[in-house]
Amino acid sequence: MIFILDDEYFLMGNQIAHIPNQILNVETYFNDLNGYDYVKNLGVTRFLKVAKAKTRNGYCVIKIFQIVDQSLPYDQYKAQIQKIYSILHEKEVAPSPLKNCLPFQIVTKNDRSIILTRPYIKDNLFYRLQTRPYLTRIEKKWIAYQLLIALKHIHHENITHGDLKIENILLTSYNWILLSDFANFKPTFFAYEDPAEYYYYFNASQRNVCYLAPERFYDQTRFRSDINNDTFSTSFGKLGTPAMDIFSLGCILTELFTEQPLFTLTQMLDYRNDSYDPMPIVNKIADVDIRTMIASMIDRDPLKRLTAEQYLQEQTGKAFPSCFHTFLLPYVQKILKDFSPDYVIYKLHRDFSYIMSSLFTEASQNNENQTETDEEKHRESSQCLLILLSLALSCMRKLKHLHSRLVALELLRLMIPLIDDQIILDRILPYVNAMLHDSYHRVRADAIRTLVFAISSVKNINQENADLFSEYLFPTLSTPYVQEDCYVRSNLAKYLSVLAEHSLRFLEKTYLIEERNHTINNDYFKLYEEELKSVQTWMQGKFGDLIHGDNEDQNGQLAEAVCRSDLIRLCTFFGKRKTIEIICGHLTTLLSQPNWRLRATLFDSLVTVASYIGLESEVFIQPLLTQGLTDEEEFVVHRVLKALACFVRLSLLKRKTIYDFLRQVAPLVCHP
């Protein structure tokens, strides 16, 4: 990130300096940086400008502070920043909770600027709260727990953050939080009557949200020099107190659980004077333990706020499931110690039984005589699997080896029965859908299997999922990645009837939801018919393509896979009239195929189709049976006889037709 001043004055810590005579563009400062290539500007503030840069080690964020007055103690602040990084970096050699911190790593000073750098992380907590799929309650608790862990350990090292806000909490794709932008170089106290300094330093996002503790605002009746002399210290971490960070954390947690800021600056100043009550916002949080904890964190009296360690001890087993402490945090830290996507997938798959026993043992204990609140806590323990699911999904697109990708899909199949339906639709399906474009055909084939398993596991369907198949899944299943490989298409043929059944189920359940909501009208009936026609048209075309195969399918393997599938589901999907027109019409062409296994399988599938159609099926099955009895392959004739016996038992043939077949079959009794 790059910061350039454009105001009349600025403060470094609690020191006053003058505005620079010349304001330079962000790109200008890259002339002083070797090994950094400018990528883009990340935002403009009155105090600083921020830029993204590229190095040989990846992307980073660069902050540049323009030096105007050489007499200010810049070296002191530089030493503080370097010491913060040194302490936290040393702790990260072991699998430590301090991996939840991302301090500035490099501090460079030249004649005209001070340059701060840290690794680039795409998302912060503010943007993540606005991004689909939205965080679940257990994920929010996991983030809150990590924040307390991070504060506990930086406070233990005598370090305070100084500018803890939702934008300074970076978030990885697997919901691991990182505290960034430690602000030891920003002032701690501000004049209550003049908020100019606050806006200058702490309103970078222009959201007008205040996360600072009320004791950081002082009356002008007390001399500013007294404030500075009381609090300023040359050692880092002394410009603020842990209680100030705890208050900021309370504001962040309120916004995390309610998605509503707790204070603007005006409200904070009123709260300082006991003329504003933030509890109506806090009370919107459903969890009573979270509410109690936040109410304590935002107490006006800093002496009444507990430490991060005390909150962890008090709320483990209450606001936070016990498995966070006993299993989840140590397990995730161990994985992050030797992090690589393939390693994570292998370890999660290998440890799956251990994970289940660790998460669900606690949830299954004391089932007798437990209150409704206790049941909710046990349910949360089982939901902790979602945190490991996020870790697995974040690794899936970065896997290098074929076997790793197959193991990842198997891991998803193990997790799917234990995950909520909406999580399957919003999170798992997009990743499985992406695997249908994989370069390995075995992965694409297994992705179809996983896709069908996921869809089959979804029981609760909402209105948003009505066009899931026609607009999302079917277009992917029609891409060259699926169509150009015979092995992948055979897997699609195997599960085609299951896809047909569930596409109709999704559509009909959406219709029932509309009916219950009393929103049925002529337009909706029209849309329903159009959607059903679209799905049936795709399924009809795909069924015909698979039955007739292509140049790569000379032996009719695709048609055989379709016939071996559960065709009764496909018949139910099309209805009786279209079953006769489409399914029977295509099946009759298979009797001329040279592959005798395909011809034998045909007669097995005829029983299923005819049992659905009823007596009307005699018209098309009679000539097929007659031709099959004269087949040159004995195994085919054997299947015809078995099918004929089934038709007789099901009363699908007229008596005259049975006598006709009896005359043809009787000579076969003499067959050796």
UniProtKB/TrEMBL annotation:
Residues 36-328 form the Protein kinase domain. GO terms for cellular component: late endosome; nucleus-vacuole junction; phosphatidylinositol 3-kinase complex, class III, type I; phosphatidylinositol 3-kinase complex, class III, type II. Pfam families: Pkinase, VPS15-like_hel. Keywords: Kinase, Repeat, Serine/threonine-protein kinase, Transferase, WD repeat. One of its GO terms (molecular function) is ATP binding. SUPFAM superfamilies: ARM repeat, Protein kinase-like (PK-like). Transmembrane segments: none annotated. This is Protein kinase domain-containing protein.
